[in-house]
Structures are given as structure tokens and as C-alpha cells.
Design a protein that fits this description.
Blueprint lengths: L2 H25 L3 H15 L5 H6 L1 H19 L2 H33 L4 H10 L5 H10 L6 H31 L4 H33 L5 H18 L4 H13 L1 H8 L5 H33 L5 H26 L8 H6 L5 H12 L5 H30 L1 H22 L1
């Protein structure tokens, strides 16, 4: 391929990702749809890049994406905010994730004859809601819901992004371990995750001290990003979970105040707060870049398949919608969030976590990995399309009477005030 063509494609991906985000905030249409469509146009339609070359790049692409997204998710989780406002969000996240993992897993096992570990890995991949989509929808101001509901939905999507990657990794590891006795397999999985937690925590604590020493030295973020990739790779080499290590590393840096207070670390919290904000903002830029390229990459490796794959994705979308509705009823019962239940119920768009874990079987050349990628991409497309359509209906028809009532009450109150003044 011509080098200039690669440059033009990279530029186009960034432009589409950037303006797609702006359009997403204004219209509520998830930006990932534009990126996937662009990828499909470049690959399956125009055949500008060879399929074999793209598939061979899956291991490196997936590793960088997992490290980036888990670190960002960890930094996004504020322990104090979770303690104060996370009750309903935790109920929504855990209930919805559990229902989706079991429901989608059972469907894939019974109807598609997927092996149980692969079926439930895919179920876990479809277990949550994309944090980026929820943030984009809430920042658009197009959702007629309370601020507390937006906070709960944002926390829910962040938590489920983490759950998707962690739990799907458990099922993936069980497939890779093969025919080991159940006790031995469980102990190996537990060792992988405990090694990841320990590695992420130790490196995170050390890095808090290093950031304090470096102060506001230039390019501190690039050093932090290099350390993130080093943490992921080294943890994988020593037999741990690189994704879990990256998550804990981000969680530790994002909650440095609690960590420093607990361990009685002598650090300048003012300098660390400036660095934390800088690292968070710069990493969000890197996350945007990785996300834009990853969804375009998924579109590139997508092959237009049979009606069976679309029907399977449609069935999974319906299962996810039903489970989300049930979870929203459980989470919002006897609270003011119950009035926003209709919006919560249809916010089912899948994103980066689902895409990454759905493509992981291909990294290890596991059976049915091609079908898994096709189903994953179709589910991402359908859940986002259905979500946009249902939110448009709810915003236009369900919430409008309340707005009119509120306007009428305000008008009557204004008239009353005017008559009093006169």
C-alpha cells in the first residue's frame, strides 16, 4: 500500500472520530457508527487493505487497546464518588451485567452451539453499556433526565466496562487452559488475577512517589503511558493478567489521595492533583485515538456474512434490551430515578469493551473466532441503532407532556405573580 494512502486514511479516521463525537453530542448518534462504516468502506467494499494483514495485527492492536481502556476506566472510578452516589449505579451495573452474561451466554450455547466458555465470554462482552456513549449522550443535553440519573448511568457504564473485560478474560483464560481439572484451572485463573492486582497496585504506588519527585516535569504523561504499556506486558510475561494490572494501575493513580492517606505517604497533593488532571486529559486523547482506530479496524476486518449472523445479533440485542429494562426496574425502584426509567432501559449501546473482548478469540486462533467477530460487530451496530431510535421516540413523545405541564405551571405562576404586583 502507498505510504501517502496510509497517511490519508489515518487523517480521515481522526477527522471522522472528532467530528463524529461533535455530531454525537448534538444528535445522540454514537460516533462509533461512523468509524465502523468508514472501515467497512475501506476494507470489505473497496478492498484497499488485505484481510490477512489485518488479522495478523489483532494481537498487538488488542493488547494496546485493552491496556489503554482499562487504565482509563480505572482513572475514571473515584472511590469517594462511588461511596457517595454509587449505590443505585452498582445495583444497575451488577444486575444488568449478570442478566446479560447469563442470558446471552445461554442463547449462544443452546442456539448457536458455542462451547460454554466461549458462549459466556461473549455474554460477558455484551454485559455492559459503553461509557463513552453514555458520556456523549449526557453531555449533548438531549436526554431529559435528572443530573443524578446521568451520574448513576455514567458510573454504571464505567463499572460494566471493567466487568466486561475482567469477567470475559476469566472465560477466555479457561478456554486457553484447555482440559485442566476444574480446581487447577480455577487456581491458575485466581493466580493470574491476583498477580495482576498486585503488580498494578505496587507499580501504581511507586508511580505516585515518582510523579511527586518529577513534579511538573515536561512529558511526564508520556513516561506514564510507557510505564502503562510496560506494566501490561511485564504482567503478561510473568503469568498475570495485563488488563487487570492496567486497571489497578489507573485506579491507584486516580485515587492517589486515598492511597497516600492510607499509606501515610509524604507527597505534595497539590502537585499530584495537577499531574493527575494532566495525565487524565492527555490519556483521554490517546484513548480517543485508540478507540477511533480500533473501530475502523473492526470495520476493515468485517466480512459481510449470512442472514444467520444478523439474526443472532438481533436476538442478542433483544435479550440485552429486556435485561436492561429488568435491571432498571430493580435499580430505580422507590427512588426519584424511577421517572427516568424509560431512558435508562433503552441505553443499551455497546462499545469498545465489547469490541475488544469479542475480537480476543481471534488473537488465539480459537474455534468460531471469525463468527464471534461478526456477531460482535453486528451487536454493536444494532444496539446503537436501536438505542438511538428508541431514545428519539422517548424524547419526542414520552417526555414532551411533562415539559408542557411544567411550562403551563410556570406560566400560571408567572401570571399569579403579575396579578399580585398589580
Amino acid at each position: 500500500m502507498e505510504p501517502l494512502l496510509i497517511i490519508y486514511m489515518a487523517v480521515a479516521i481522526i477527522y471522522i472520530g472528532f467530528f463524529g463525537l461533535i455530531l454525537s453530542r448534538k444528535s445522540g448518534i454514537p460516533h462509533i457508527l461512523f468509524l465502523v462504516v468508514f472501515g467497512v468502506a475501506l476494507g470489505p467494499i473497496l478492498h484497499l487493505i488485505e484481510y490477512k494483514v489485518l488479522v495478523s495485527a489483532i494481537p498487538a492492536v488488542s493488547a494496546i487497546t485493552i491496556a489503554t481502556v482499562t487504565f482509563y476506566s480505572g482513572m475514571n472510578i473515584n472511590v469517594e464518588t462511588l461511596k457517595a452516589h454509587g449505590g443505585r449505579a452498582l445495583i444497575l451495573a451488577i444486575t444488568g451485567f449478570t442478566l446479560n452474561t447469563i442470558g446471552c451466554g445461554l442463547f449462544l450455547q443452546l442456539y448457536c452451539n458455542f462451547p460454554p466458555p466461549l458462549a459466556y465470554m461473549m455474554g460477558a462482552a455484551f454485559g455492559g453499556t459503553c461509557a463513552a456513549i453514555v458520556v456523549a449522550l449526557s453531555s449533548s443535553g438531549s436526554l431529559p433526565i435528572r443530573k443524578s440519573t446521568i451520574t448513576a448511568m455514567t458510573l454504571d457504564s464505567t463499572i460494566t466496562d471493567v466487568l466486561c473485560i475482567v469477567i470475559a478474560s476469566v472465560f477466555l483464560n479457561s478456554m486457553l487452559l484447555g482440559e485442566l481439572p476444574i480446581n487447577e484451572a480455577l487456581s491458575k485463573i485466581a493466580a493470574q488475577f491476583s498477580t495482576g492486582i498486585l503488580a498494578g497496585l505496587i507499580i501504581g504506588i511507586i508511580w505516585i512517589k515518582i510523579m511527586h519527585i518529577l513534579g511538573q516535569e515536561k512529558y511526564t504523561y508520556m513516561l506514564t503511558f510507557a510505564t502503562l504499556l510496560l506494566t501490561y506486558a511485564t504482567t503478561e510475561v510473568i503469568g498475570g493478567s495485563g488488563g487487570v494490572a492496567s486497571l489497578v494501575f489507573g485506579l491507584t493513580l486516580g485515587n492517589y489521595k486515598s492511597i497516600a492517606s492510607t499509606l501515610k505517604m509524604q507527597v505534595d497533593k497539590g502537585i499530584l492533583e495537577v499531574l493527575r488532571v494532566e495525565v487524565f486529559h492527555l490519556h483521554s486523547e490517546i484513548s480517543f485515538l485508540v478507540e477511533a482506530f480500533f473501530f475502523t479496524y473492526l470495520g476493515l476486518i468485517y466480512t459481510i456474512g449470512s442472514a444467520f449472523e444478523i439474526l443472532v445479533a438481533a436476538a442478542i440485542t433483544m435479550i440485552v434490551l429486556i435485561n436492561r429494562t429488568l435491571a432498571s426496574f430493580v435499580a430505580t425502584s422507590m427512588s426519584e430515578m424511577a421517572e427516568d426509567r424509560s431512558v435508562i432501559s433503552v441505553t443499551i449501546g455497546k462499545g469498545l469493551a465489547a469490541a475488544v473482548m469479542g475480537s480476543m478469540p481471534a488473537q488465539y486462533s480459537l474455534p468460531l473466532s471469525d463468527l464471534a467477530i461478526k456477531i460482535t460487530l453486528n451487536v454493536i451496530l444494532l444496539t446503537n441503532i436501536i438505542m438511538v431510535l428508541l431514545l428519539a421516540v422517548i424524547t419526542k413523545f414520552v417526555k414532551r407532556p411533562k415539559a408542557k405541564a411544567a411550562t403551563k405551571e410556570a406560566t400560571e405562576a408567572s401570571r399569579a405573580d403579575t396579578s399580585k404586583e398589580s
